[in-house]
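The records we work with from here on pair a chain with its fold. These numbers are not coordinates but entries in a learned vocabulary of local backbone shapes. To see the layout at work, look at the sequence and tokens printed below.

. . .
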Amino acid sequence: MNNVSRFYDELVKFVSQLPWADRRHLYVLVWMVLGAIAGGSVNLTGWITTVETKARYAQSTQRRFQR
């Protein structure tokens, strides 16, 4: 297991302590935080390489972050 996966799991545990109406939002938040840390910026397109997703196109992931 690589460091990003471990950090992702730990961050999900931590953020899961808060009440979430929709858990999908929790996972998007965690990926956004990881992307910002790994990318070193707040540029949405810079985060896409960090995110593990089933999306076929990078634009799909970027739109998800924008919402």
